[in-house]
Specification:
Number of strands: 6
Structural class: alpha+beta
Distance between the termini: 19 Å
Length: 206
Amino acid sequence: MKASERIIDGLKQGIDRHWRYTKNLLNVKPEYLLTVSVADALTDGFDGICGLDLEIKLEEPTRRLWGSLWINAVGYKNYFPLVKQKEYEKYKMIRKGKVDIYVECNSESWIIELKGFNPSADEIRKEIVRLTQFIAANEQKNKCRGCYLAFPTLLDRTEWIESTVLAISGNAPFLISFESEKVETLEDPDDGMPVFYANCISIVCI
């Protein structure tokens, strides 16, 4: 099963769990239940990798991961002189904060970010820009093999999301794709939300 499929499965599980806890699907904030559920789904493995071989971390500081990518790519000896150079500004991460899920397996890693229901176009753009930085570090010669942004929506927003992704991707030297799954909750419209859409944007090395 692909990583994006595992992530969508975890997203669905997290929303179902949140509903059972609170009887409120729309207010999935903070996204902690989504994070835990997606991480749990990833423990089953993806892309031919056994889940037992994966190390999964939650809420890892962006700065730490960014430095780790560069050190892994160029080595300690070359990394610290690079930091001191004036042009190092171009190597800095645009956004700080933390990454929701960080997955490692030997010399490869993956990053997953999650959002609650109906994130704005601006939120999606900011996250994609940050995630593409991980992929592009050291001219893509680093251990990050893929980044993913997953979120649920009330309506089918495929056209809108695809246009947003297309506008950002341009001639990027990596592949950005989008998947969406319609989920029927079997809830009565008067009691809950009968349908929602689980979405995942994938950014992977070509």
